[in-house]
Write the structure tokens for this entry.
Amino acid sequence: MNKNSKEAWTLDQLLKSRLFHRKLHEWGMLEIAREIESIKGEELDWNISLLNIDEGAWNKIIHRGIKPVTVFAHPRVLESQPKRISYYRMLAMVSQKSMDNVGLPVIRYETDNRPLSQSNALAISKHLNKIISDLINSDEVIDPREFDIWRGMAAGTQAQGSWQNEKGAESARLVSEMTKKHIKARGLISLTLGPSQFRLKDGRELIIGKEPDIGIYDATGRISIAVEIKGGIDTAGVLERLGAALKSLSRAKRENPQSKTILILPSVAMTKAFQKDVKAARDVDYCFTLDEVINEPLKQKEFFNLLGL
């Protein structure tokens, strides 16, 4: 494995781990688990036959002193906070898509927290309890620590799907966060206009996260620097997304022919043929690899110097 490939894979691992960690918090997994642990489950009516809970699985939980509400779904628990469906769904190790396939869609409740009817709450509870009961019965002795692992396995699968859709955006997010930290540490901000919009002390305005990925505008509001960032280690995928990046940089040049344009790509995309194409592209003034901007201090300094930061 050559150096560029190794660095690209290392950065890919970093970006993927960051996304998985961010999804943990976006989905509120810890908060929902704590909510459920605080519920007084003994006040609920546990009709295990109605709720599709196997008696053997129920007895295993009770004999281990485990609160049933932390293991089995109850309609009242789901009705009062529909987002809690994700806790039991992940405990059953089933995906959102598979719930769609059995006629019990849950995304609308898990993400938008839409009101959940009694009938839907019961149907979802019964379905998940059947699977959870089977998992419990498959172990001779149940270890409560397994429950966190079950949920983690399902969350990982769900995050993997997000990674396939967002890995390019995660690269842009990493460079953007690095840029935010830099301007804050250097005291370059005169006014914060929004979470990702800043007026700099030299009168320019820096906007992060729109098109282009990083844009710096002069006092008249005309773009002066445009940065496009594309990530991922799938060369074909990166090159496919490159067209959109070049269009964005072309727009900046049309708006202001004197604007400075910068393209950042993973090193695996920087083949000799591709480097030649980039050099021939009239709308790309500077090109960096993602790896060097993130990991090489001299290249990082060069990048910020080009931004006037």
Remarks:
- The radius of gyration is 25 Å.
- The first helix runs from residue 3 to 26.
- Residues 35 and 84 are 9 Å apart (CA to CA).
